[in-house]
Structure formats: C-alpha cells, structure tokens
Amino acid sequence: MNLTGIHHIAIICSEYKISKEFYVNLMGFPIINEVYREERDSYKLDLALPDGTQLELFSFPGAPVRPSYPEAQGLRHLAFQTPDIVEAV
What we know:
CATH class: Alpha Beta
Distance between the termini: 9 Å
Largest sheet: 5 strands, mixed
CATH superfamily: 2,3-Dihydroxybiphenyl 1,2-Dioxygenase, domain 1
Structural class: alpha+beta
C-alpha cells in the first residue's frame, strides 16, 4: 500500500467554542483556516499539528450524540496521505 501518513482527522464538536479554545489556546495548534458556513450554520476550523497532520473541527447544530449518523458528534472521518491515489486505490 502506498500511504505515507495521515493528512487530516475530522471531528464534529459538541461545543465549538470550547473545542476551539482547547485546541488553539491550550494545545497551541496554529489555525490554518476558519470558515463559517452560513447555509449550514456551521463552523469549520483547520488546525496544524506539529507533524504536518491537520485537525478539522466542525460544528453542526443539532448533531446527534450517537456516532451512528454521518453528522454525529465525534470522529467524522480520517484521511490518509499518498503520493499516488491511483496506486493506493
């Protein structure tokens, strides 16, 4: 398999402001980009981890607590990194 690492980890937050405070101010992860998506009343915050991996924090109003739904709180997805997607597939 031709995977070289993890590109990003996406998490749906239960409390966006608290999560942002934790990851930015307590953990010290620099902000790459922050976007408010008005049509979804949702934030997306991209953070840089020391090894180059990115952490994506999402907020979704009314996101279910149970992780059995695509927009539930918790891990949304994990994206691997590869120099050749065709070979990796």
